[in-house]
Structures are given as C-alpha cells and as structure tokens.
Amino acid sequence: MASEDVIGKTTGESAVSTIVNLAEEAKLAREGVKAPGPAFLSICKSLAAGGIAGGVSRTAVAPLERLKILLQVQNSHNIKYNGTIQGLKYIWRTEGFRGLFRGNGTNCARIVPNSAVKFFSYDEASRSILWLYRQQPGNEDAQMTPLLRLGAGATAGIIAMSATYPMDMVRGRLTVQTENTPHQYRGLFHGLKTVLMEEGPRALYRGWLPSVIGVIPYVGLNFSVYESLKEWLVKSRPFGLVDGSELGVTTKLACGAAAGTVGQTVAYPLDVIRRRMQMVGWKDAASIVTGDGRSKASVEYCGMVDAFKKTVRNEGFGALYKGLIPNSVKVVPSISIAFVTYEVVKDVLGVEMRISD
C-alpha cells in the first residue's frame, strides 16, 4: 500500500501543478495575451479536464466500486457479501475504513488517464464523425444526432479501454485481495510486473474482448443519452429547468444519472464476465473468493462465450447481475459527477469547445 500512496501523492502533485499552469494560460488568453502552441494547449486542457473528472467521480464512489467487484467474483457456495448495506458493514468490520477504499489509489492511477483519453477521444470523434456526415449530399448543415453521438461515444470507449486495460486488470485484483491474501500485490506497478512474470503478457489483456464489447453500449449510451437529453431540455424547456440557454448543475447531474443508469444496465453482464476472466490464472483467487484459505481450484474459462455458459449453468442467469445494486447506487453519482466536473473544469481552464458543441 505504501507504493500505492506514493503513486497517488505524486499523481496528485503533478495534477495540481498542471491545473495551476493551465489556469494561468487561460487567464492570459482571456486578457488577450496569445500563448504559444494553441492546439497543443487545448489538447492539454481537455485531457486535464477529463482526468480530473474521472479522479473526482471515482473517489466519491470508491467503497461501492470495491463492493461491486467483490460481489461479482465471490463464490456462490460461501457468501460473505450479501447486499449493499451488509457488504459495506462487513468490509468496515473486518478491514476498517481503509478497506472501503482499498485499491482506490491504483484505481485513480488508472481512471485518470482512462477518463482523460475517453473525454478527449469523444471530442475528437464527434468532430470527425460530424465532418464525415456533412460530406454526404444534403447533410451540409447537419448537426449531431443521438446515433452519431452513440458512435462517437463507442469509439472513445474502445480507445480509452484498450489504452489502459492492463491497469484495469491489475486494479481488479488489488480491489479483491484482503489482508489475508497469501501473496499481496503491493501496488499498480508491482501488480503489473508480477502478472507479466508469472502469467505472461497475454494475461494483462485477459477479459479484453468482453470489456470492449461491453464498453460500446456503455460509454456510447452514456454520451448519447447525456448529450441528447441536455439538447432536448434546452430546446423544449420543460418544468422551467432551463435558465436562458444554460442548464443548471442539478439538471446536468440528473442528465448524467439517467445516462449512467441506461448504459450500465445494458452492459453489466459483460462487466461481470470480464471480472471473472481477469481472476483466471491467479493462484490466490480461490482463497479470496471463498474466504476459507483452502486450495480449491477456481473455475477456468476458455474464452468469453465459455465464461457466459459456465456462469449461467453453475449459478443461474441472475449471476450475470451480481453486484448490480451497489453498481446502480454507484453509477448514478459517478457518471453525473464526471460529466459535470468535466464541463466545469473546461470552463475554468478556458476551453472553448464543449462536448455538447
């Protein structure tokens, strides 16, 4: 955990320094002083905004994130975590306050670059897709539609997931391990090195296929629903939710909550399969998910389809939705905070283009 804290501290200091520098550049721009390299600066601002949004939103829901993963991978014949409230109480009683946030430092080390790449990729994919769409006859003045936003969001999700997947794989194992795990991963880099040496480079991408398939509807629907709902509210102005041409923070949070709920419900079974495939090959996984210290072999999966078949056959269809309740409780504030934080930080840094543009 010490190395994880060092990583978090270093990352935090770098982020603060970057924010201060970018804020100064934004101030100069507002005062009419032209800064060098405007294209590069805009990219840095967009990446910084996305990274901050991801770190803030994920830390806010870290206990629910850990409980969700524990529910997804625990043995069905030895239940330790039985629901959201009971599960959180059990973690608090057996591992203390730090147990609720176990793996969050590593999670932020993963989610900050993931979120930065995801939001930036969405911005760029949206512009590219709209440009290509306008090249078609009769579409010269076309605007973004829900379907185009879905495509841009799916593209952004695939790029971000693939770029940071090894960190996600190790983060899942760090989140699952407890104080009684025989051989501890001491942090992100130690985990990456250990998996690489003991299981080979392919192990770092175990579960990648269901992750990519799942991220297409999840991230795609998140962006599409969020942006389309915002656009509809601005145009129709129902219930007096719109002040002028801008939505309030509370309304944006509600839009993010709706987007997150739709996306995670559709993609959740693939997330369960991804987590289970990530545990394959880890010799200490059995003692973690059973909690009894026995050397009972964990289930082996030959691929995504085999993992689906064995999960449903051994535990029933409901196993594909293990941990859905804490994930639902988590995803509403998480997605909402991420979207709103991203837009607020971009305003502070003086980035002209927003995702809704």
Automatic annotation (TrEMBL):
InterPro entries reported for this sequence: MCP (IPR002067), MCP_dom_sf (IPR023395), MCP_transmembrane (IPR018108)
Compartment list: Mitochondrion inner membrane
Solcar repeats (start-end): 41-128, 144-232, 247-348
GO BP, one annotated term: transmembrane transport
Alphabetical list of SUPFAM superfamilies matching this protein: Mitochondrial carrier
Organism superkingdom: Eukaryota
Entry membrane topology: Multi-pass membrane protein
Main location: mitochondrion
Entry GO CC: mitochondrial inner membrane
Keywords: Membrane, Mitochondrion, Mitochondrion inner membrane, Repeat, Transmembrane, Transmembrane helix, Transport
Record bears the keyword Ligase: no
Protein family: Belongs to the mitochondrial carrier (TC 2.A.29) family.
Protein name as annotated: Mitochondrial carrier protein
